[in-house]
Amino acid sequence: MIIAVWASRIPEIKQQAGLNDGELSLALLGLAVGSLAAMQFTGRMVDRHGSAAVMLPAAVFASLALVGPGFAHSLPYLFTALVAVGFGCGMLGVPMNVHAARVERRYGRPIMASFHAAFSIGGFTGAAVGGATALLGLGAALTFVSVAAVLAVLAVAVRGWLLRGPDTVAATAAGRPARERSRGIPLRIVLFGAAAFCCMLAEGSVTDWAAVYLHDARGASGAVAALGFSAFSALMAAGRLVGDRLTATLGTVTIVRGGALLAAAGLALTLLTPWAVTGVAGFAIMGAGLSCVIPQVFGAAVEYDPRRAGRNLGFVSAMGQVGLLSGPVAIGAVAHTVDIAVALAVPATLCVAIALSASALRGAVATRTAPAGTSA
């Protein structure tokens, strides 16, 4: 919700700070700088102090950081404010995923995808709140202060529901002793990071280029072109809501492999058919296919070695963020050099690569995610 509320008021903040497009792009780099730094810093804190201890202050900081951009009147101020927002969101991302995996472990069946569905729902809600306040004539600063206060209070209010004690106790009790500590990043975690990079590069590509492709390559109107990303987002949220049941039935490896192939097929439908309507449908199918990849990869990163869950998840999350940030740039470069359809074939190829590497998840996830009658 923090990111969506901010994004919905970017035009006003741009005008308020007197920025041109290039300066705004530079300011937006602050989000990436803060987020990537926080993921590494917070991973170590989670391993040392536990996810519950880190999550509450991270949530409060992330909420209150939203206030800063509302008062930006220059490029340096906005860049610094967005570094704080990115740092807060990055600092929250690691402990909440580690804690989610711990709750899932205690719950006894897969629910990680539903947690990530809440992320999608928060995005929709934040965009709606930002749009509604703009329609009502409320300034960005007042909007950010109000939302920040509500979210900070909400974060404090739910602190009593967090699980107590260290994160590794439950893992050992569940019969999966923590692996020996390693000085470097294990190869399996590197593979998880590569999968996260591929998945989030594909997501970022659709976010920035779906409407452009449908408009320029398929002749869709502006309204129809906008449906590409909307359909992608809606099916991604829906897929996460049903993903836990599918994971419990089919297992993590099958869900990731099948979902990645479905995503590749959806994008192929978009690229190989000449109609805008099939293009929208293809983006929707792609969203459904990718919906459960990140939840399962993040969960596997936590379960692989619970004693080093923060470090491992911080690495995997950072790889995903690099993909998310670099994807649109890479697609734009290829589109400028060759063609946008050729450029969008890149994320389709990466989806196939995710499917081919899905077997790396086997043995790194809890036995409860395996189909009935089988073991992990």
TrEMBL record:
UniProt-recorded Gene Ontology molecular function terms = transmembrane transporter activity
- Give the matching Pfam families: MFS_1
Q: Which InterPro entries match?
A: Bacilysin_exporter_BacE_put, MFS, MFS_dom, MFS_trans_sf, MFS_Transporter
Decide whether keyword Cell membrane is in the record. Answer: no
Sequence ranges assigned to domain Major facilitator superfamily (MFS) profile in this UniProt record? 1-366
Q: Where in the cell is it found?
A: Cell membrane
Q: Does the keyword Ion transport apply?
A: no
Keywords from the UniProt entry: Membrane, Transmembrane, Transmembrane helix
Segments passing through the bilayer? 53-71, 77-98, 110-129, 135-158, 185-203, 223-243, 255-277, 283-301, 313-334, 340-361
What's the superkingdom here?
Bacteria
* Protein name as annotated: MFS transporter
Q: How does it sit in the membrane?
A: Multi-pass membrane protein
**Family annotation (PANTHER family):** BYPASS OF STOP CODON PROTEIN 6, INNER MEMBRANE PROTEIN YBJJ
Main localization of the protein described in the UniProt heading: membrane
**Can you cite an annotated GO cellular component?**
plasma membrane
Q: Which organism is it from?
A: Thermobifida halotolerans
